[in-house]
Amino acid sequence: MTPASERPAPRFSWFVPIDGDGAHIGTLRAERPPTFENLRAIADAAEEAGYYSMLIPTRFANGLFDSGEPLAETWTTATALAAVTKRIRFLIAVRPGFVSPGLFAQMAAALSQISGGRIDINIVPGGIQGEFEKMGENIDHDTRYERAEEFIEALRRLWASPGPVVFEGDHVRLNGAHCSPGPVDGGPKFYLGGASPAALRLAGRQADAYLAWIGPTEAIAKFIAAATAQYDAAGRSPVFGLRTHLVLRDTEEEAWAETEELLARAEKNVEAQRQALFAGTAMVGQRDQAKRFEDHRVGRHLWNGISTVRVNCGTALVGSPDQIAGELLGYWRLGVDEFILSGYPHLEECRRVARDLIPRTESLIAAERAAV
Question: Would the pTM count as exceeding 0.85?
């Protein structure tokens, strides 16, 4: 691992809740639907507060409230938000296979030009059982990762030169494709997550940053060690990020009380929808997020109750600002340099976290770096 004194200053990013938002989750309808006005207000607040970037996930159906409820489409939303902001970056989740690489290279290059280079790409090859099939996609888990690798390689070639580009892969083929103008500053960075062997291999070969979902520090340490081995095998240097929800309050008691309030209005049929999606999933990370613990307490400050009503990352750090800052310091010690945070509702919690948590965490990390 890179010595602490040589690592970059930590980055803190926020989240765009395309499923909707509110002080309660798992209800039939979101208290705050994912209208452009609501999402723009969060982006404006995150930019004003000084966050580095905002993660925009990808979904085929609402994954936090009833599955038939409104959902903001990822790429359109990212484009609109990039056009009305000035500094903050956007980490945009993309599923290879649903748009041709040649066309996507042009789309991403255009958005890079429009935004002044403020976009990065979160490649999402995997999916929950049955999710891809609903959209007419029927290839297996490992093949999705093989296709994702060709997708990334093709994009890099298209962005490196105005063309013509010829690419002959098993899943991606280009015959004289062009991309001009290309993206700003060499193009977006690629983020990859996933806990399966296929995901770790792909990250080692192609990811500019490996992004893990929050878990106990011992589990994250194992992921980082496994990913580092893959980066080493590819002769590349790893960068690690961590995605987590937060339940942050002035005291630990208030924070744990808030976890109960967050799910106080959850509907049984929404919980049933999520559990049906998780049953038999090939996603290693999703299975880890949904493991059962008494009162959903994974650890003293880790709570996975969100996983009962939400797809993908369903675990939160819970506690006071000093407690959660100490927890984030522990993950930083493992090698994490970027933290992608969220909390409900996202507008108010964006400001609370920027005011009460990030300065404390930065101070702890700065002191540790100076002591080396």
Answer: yes
